[in-house]
Amino acid sequence: MMTFLNYLLSGISLGSIYAIIALGYTMVYGIAKMLNFAHGDVIMVGAYICFFAVSRYSLPPLLGVIAAMAVCTVLGVIVERLAYKPLRSAPSLAVLITAIGVSYFLQNGAQLLWTPNPKVFSSVVGTNRLALFGGQLTVSYVTLVTIASCVVIMVALTWFTGKTKTGKAMRACSEDKGAAQLMGINVNSTISVTFAIGSGLAAIAGVLLCSAYPTLVPTTGAMPGIKAFTAAVFGGIGSIPGAMLGGILLGVIEIFSKAYISTQLSDAVVFAVLIIVLLVKPAGLLGKQVREKV
Amino acid sequence: MMLTVENIDVFYGAIHAIKGISFDVNEGEIVALIGANGAGKSTTLKTISGIMHPRNGKITFLGEDITHTDGYKLPAKGLAQVPEGRRIFLQMTVMENLEMGAYIQKKVPPEDFDNVFAHFPRLKERRSQIAGTLSGGEQQMLAMGRALMSHPKLLMLDEPSMGLAPILVEEIFNIIREFHAAGTTILLVEQNAEMALQVADRAYVLESGTIALSGTGKELAESDEIKKAYLGG
Q: What is the pLDDT of residue A3?
């Protein structure tokens, strides 16, 4: 029973990281209708910034996280301006290929700047473990902080998109850019804000990911990026609660299949579940298919 | 002069959609642009509201050259458009749609919502409903209410009667008269020439990207050419 709970907690924790990354994918897709495949590499940049801030310049971990968020936010906005904005009216395939290009650019840039040698990331929340039930169940603080961050981010984003003016403008743009412009909404700056938020969240995800799995290399972001993209599709791309649900389910399924089925087959199980879900619900778990009235 | 359009040429790629048309709208008028499908009526409105830009010519709104102004800056200057096909935000509530209409205002006074609900009592009943669940007529009303929220000096309506039952068309045109009586200048694009000429002070007839005729609503409604082509007489 305790082992089961332990697996469940690690699953939710890994899933929380996927969920935070998936939010960036889903928000950008919702508004810009593009798959930003460079999103995973922003995670890696965030982790490196935090690593250098904490390990080389001995800043307190919280400042390291803030520095990572600041750098990633700026990076996200710059990438959007330079690489994606000029392609706003280009075919979506061209944008997709550009995103893959940006992904390689970031990975190779990181190799050049920081060498391909693995860095050992020291967890920002320490390696202590919390003992529950008289020591039968131990949970690392990283796990708890990861799950808590995910909950806080979810609540904050729901409030932001539901109640604030900028958040509502983002929803309006993601539904109909032309009509949003007629309301006086600056669509370009709204898209920039979305990239900024998504990239800032990616930085948090990077720090949490490397706190749990401390080996940091320039390709660290690639696989979690793909998994989080899967999570976003799983939950219904474009939907914020969908990204959360998809991320957490994906993490739990992955850990359970590693524990009970086979470590090698865990990714296959994850994608098999994705295929089954998409066969039954093509728009994802919480994806909406809205029919327009004429 | 509230709006002046001088000799604009608009292209879709190589297609010359608007061929040097000129017209104007005076303060307090209702001006109609009528014409068949593909005559260039909607393109003209899109060009005024900055969704498209002309290759040549000039558009002046309240003395300011807006020919190449970014579309999103125009609502703050007093220009609002109810686009063709309504284009309300289907996944947002009725209230949120109205809030988006007031986006250019820092703080929205509650009277503004009351004002819209006075014109459209049905929207008040459905204020927290998701807009996608409204009927076609209600969606048109929401699109018009949303445009009203920005306190436009010039309201442009693109095919407000399209796809509506005759009784609703009547209602929509009554509301256009109400807006006008409240001091809003109106530029109306319509295929329903009969209704449009009834409310319009002046009208322009567009034919394949040029202005074929112009005159007061009454003159045009009585002209033989118009009767033959658009009024089924």
A: 86
pLDDT value, residue A289: 61
Determine the residue of chain B that is closest to A181 in CA distance. B72
Task: Dig out the tokens for B125 from the structure.
Answer: 């009943």
Interchain CB distance below 8 Å, A290 and B92: no
Tell me how close the Cα of B211 comes to any Cα of chain A, in angstroms: 26
Number of separate domains in chain B: 1
| Residue B145 touches partner A, C-beta closer than 8 Å | no
Any domain includes B146? no
* Closest C-alpha among B188, B194, B198, B199 to residue B229: B194
B128 touches chain A (CB under 8 A): no
- Residues 6+ away with beta carbon under 8 Å from A155: none
Residue boundaries of the structural domains of chain A: 2-280
Domain that holds residue B204: 1-74+182-233
**DSSP string spanning A119-171?**
EEPPPTT-S-EEEEGGGTEEEEHHHHHHHHHHHHHHHHHHHHHHHSHHHHHHH
Q: Which residues contact B71 (CB under 8 A, 6 or more apart)?
A: A181, A182, B49, B50, B51
Answer yes or no: do B87 and A169 touch at CB < 8 A: no
Q: A2-280: what fold?
A: ABC transporter involved in vitamin B12 uptake, BtuC (1.10.3470)
Chain B residues with beta carbon closer than 8 angstroms to that of A176: 87, 89
> With an 8 Å Cβ cutoff, is A179 touching chain B?
yes
Q: E strands within chain A?
A: 119-120, 129-132, 137-140, 215-216
Distance CA A94, CA A102 (A): 12
CATH classification at residue B194: 3.40.50.300
Q: How many interchain CB pairs under 8 A, A with B?
A: 77
In a domain, B28, yes or no: yes
Per the structure block, which two tokens stand in for B47? 């060009």
Residue B187 is assigned to a structural domain of this protein? yes
**Disruptive mutation site among B103, B148, B158 for chain A (greatest number of A CBs within 10 Å):** B103
Tell me if chain B has a CB within 8 Å of the CB of A280: no
This model of the complex carries an ipTM of 0.91
Cα distance between residue B158 and residue B144, in whole Å: 11
- pTM across the whole model: 0.90
Establish if B222 belongs to a structural domain.
yes
pLDDT digits (tens, 9 = 90+) for A77-113: 999 999 999 998 899 899 999 999 999 999 999 999 9
Query: B46-51 contacts: CB < 8 A, separation 24 or more?
Result: B47/B8, B47/B10, B47/B18, B48/B3, B48/B5, B48/B79, B48/B81, B48/B156, B48/B187, B49/A182, B49/B74, B49/B79, B49/B81, B49/B156, B50/A181, B50/B74, B51/A178, B51/A181, B51/A182
> Which residues in chain A are contacts of B105 at CB distance < 8 A?
none
